[in-house]
Amino acid sequence: MEIALLLEYGWVLLILIAIEGILAADNALVIATMVKHLPKEQRKKALVYGLAGAFVFRFGSLFLISYLIHIWQIQAIGAAYLLGIAIYHLVKKYMLKRYIKAKMQEAKGSGFWLTVLKVELADVAFAVDAILVAVALAATLPTTNLPNIGGLDGGHFTIVLAGGIIGLIIMRFAAGKFVDLLDRKPGLETTAYVVVAWVGVKLAVYALSHPELAIISTDFAKGVTWKIIFWSILMLIVVTGWFMSKDEPNQIILQKSS
Fold first, then answer.
1. What's the whole-model pTM score?
2. Of 57, 136, 159, 237, which residue is 20 to 30 A from 107 by alpha carbon distance?
3. DSSP code of 209?
């Protein structure tokens, strides 16, 4: 049973790394655009200050949400938020391209500290996304013998904490690799947000099974049947997204010539 538990936790952590990687790449692209207008020597400072703010917020909110996650209203808000950002991404990408581009052009003249503030706010928003995805994935994992931290089982907290640390590491050091992957397979960005939406559905099911609502059976929400359904559809989304995201010809030529 211990081996099965470790495998399930390890699998969730691998999924988190993949989601964090794609989201971090998307976030890195946004933040890079925000600081692009600054002199070269100021860009790195703006990114470091912004990342420091994200680090503080991410771990502060992690301890806060560990106490709040068992409240069904918080679960419902989290589910709605994850579904909302996924829908917003799809609408932004496929319906509001010109409007977003115009807004980004307007922001190019910002001074150093205003740019730092914008990067801080963007990092905070990205941190909320990452934490909610991690919590939604960890919440229905089997409990462990580890002591509770805040309101979360020690094992659940460890997965969420690991997801937060991995997200920051990827954003700081490995985002470039994921940016290259997104350049080559741009459809993966949409796939990542469809995964986020599906994780939002998982959190919604968890909320609806809360004892105060009992709209869905707790046995179903934490049972094998729902786990099989959830992971099967998630893998279907990932595999379909990978094969339907065609390689960009220009990127293939660049890679062959480099």
1. 0.66
2. 57
3. T
- Angle in degrees, CA 166, 56, 171, rounded to 5: 35
* Token pair in block for residue 4: 């099965």
Kindly state the tokens that stand for 131: 């934490």
pLDDT digits (tens, 9 = 90+) for 27-65: 666 666 666 667 777 777 777 776 677 677 777 777 777
Q: Which helix (H) or strand (E) holds 50?
A: helix 40-68
The C-alpha atoms of residue 136 and residue 132 are separated, in whole angstroms, by 6
The DSSP code for 96 is: -
| Each residue's pLDDT tens digit, 241-258 | 888 877 655 544 444 444
Q: 131-134, long-range: CB within 8 Å, 24+ apart, which pairs?
A: 131/58, 131/61, 131/62, 131/65, 131/160, 131/163, 131/164, 132/78, 132/81, 132/82, 132/203, 133/16, 133/19, 133/20, 133/23, 133/82, 133/163, 133/196, 133/199, 134/16, 134/159, 134/160, 134/163, 134/164
Phi, then psi, of 69 in degrees rounded to 5: -65, -25
Give the residue from 25, 24, 46 showing the smallest Cα distance to 35. 46
More confident residue, 142 or 28: 142
**Count of CA atoms in the C-beta half-sphere (13 A) of 198:** 20
CA–CA separation, 44 and 208 (whole Å): 45
**CA dist., res. 186 & res. 193, Å (int):** 12
First to last CA, the chain: 49
